[in-house]
Write a structure and sequence with these properties.
By secondary structure, the chain is of the alpha/beta class. It has two domains: 76 residues, no CATH class; 208 residues, Uracil-DNA glycosylase-like domain (Uracil-DNA Glycosylase, subunit E). The chain is built from 13 helices and six strands. It is globular and about 75 Å long. It binds iron/sulfur cluster.
Length: 299
């Protein structure tokens, strides 16, 4: 069992647990996943349409009603057999090139109106950088500058992030940068849970397409959404987490990323005393990636 869950999977699990509670089941036991054979799928489907299916098999049922029930049963069998409970296959899964996969995700996002943040945005801020990057930074959401330019981290916080990347001995174009939500929250407020839940599946797909070695969550919103944990930033910093989006579970070409948490550059602008702590987080990442800092930064 992975130590962390991505929001997509967490939501699906929460939905399933709620359904079980409504059915009166409160105790859960772990068992290894198993592929159902056709007979088992049909049996589950028959239960799913019960008690109507019992009526459908009854000799007193009118033929047209029996036909309708039979069609419903077939539909349920198809649903169970063809759909993964937790995810629907995405177009980019069939594409091995990261740049092409990102393009498909961007096309799927379209002129998105899936959550209320679309109402106040100027531009969707999809993400920027090397589609094959080993290192990815994930922030919270676009600010005014990002909203105007359609690119993440281009304002003052972006300048500081650029300096942090430079201190690591890298260039901005060597990494990939994205946010949990792609549209600017009004007044730069923190994105609300429903907005994060609606938008973050696109981020997860971006991460699965890029297949980075390390993801750095910038700030509490990014950390909590990526890790699906509700701890404070202080508790989440200082260690790596194994991270693989649910949609990439079947991708044997990528074992997942290591995820580190550090302060958001906007917070560091407000409290520069924490820069030293952020540098420790980045040094942990550099060590893992085998990056030697430029002499000046190392001194
Ligand atoms: S924040 Fe994300 S989900 Fe919401 S409208 Fe923008 S792109 Fe769509």
């Amino acid at each position: 069992m992975p130590s962390t869950l991505d929001p997509e999977l967490r939501r699906a699990l929460a939905e399933r647990v709620r359904y079980c509670h409504e059915m009166g089941f409160y105790d859960f036991y772990r068992r290894e996943p198993r592929v159902l054979d056709v007979a088992e799928v049909e049996s589950v489907a028959a239960e799913a349409v019960s008690p109507s299916s019992l009526l459908a098999s009854s000799s007193i049922l009118q033929p047209e009603l029996r036909e309708e029930m039979s069609a419903r049963k077939s539909a349920v069998v198809r649903t169970i057999a063809e759909e993964n409970v937790f995810e629907t296959p995405k177009l980019e899964y069939a594409v091995s090139d990261s740049a092409a996969a990102l393009k498909l995700i961007r096309e799927d996002l379209g002129d998105c109106t899936r959550c209320k943040l679309h109402k106040g945005r100027t531009k969707i801020v999809f993400g920027v950088g090397d589609p094959h990057a080993e290192l990815m930074f994930v922030g919270e959401g676009p600010g005014a500058d990002e909203d105007a330019q359609g690119e993440p981290f281009v304002g003052r916080a972006g300048q500081l992030l650029n300096n942090m990347i430079k201190a690591m001995g890298l260039r901005r174009e060597d990494v990939y940068i994205a946010n949990v939500v792609k549209c600017r929250p009004p007044g730069n407020r923190t994105p609300e849970p429903d907005e994060c839940d609606t938008c973050s599946p696109f981020l997860m797909r971006q991460i699965a397409a890029i297949k980075p070695k390390v993801v750095v969550a910038l700030g509490a919103t990014a950390a909590k959404n990526l890790l699906a944990m509700n701890s404070s930033l202080g508790e989440l910093r200082g260690r790596f987490y194994d991270f693989k989006p649910a949609g990439a579970r079947a991708d044997s070409s990528w074992s997942g990323a290591r995820l580190a948490v550090t302060y958001h550059p906007a917070y560091l602008l407000r409290d520069p005393r924490q820069k030293g702590e952020a540098w420790k987080d980045l040094q942990m990442v550099m060590k893992y990636l085998g990056i030697e800092p430029p002499k000046k930064a190392a001194e």
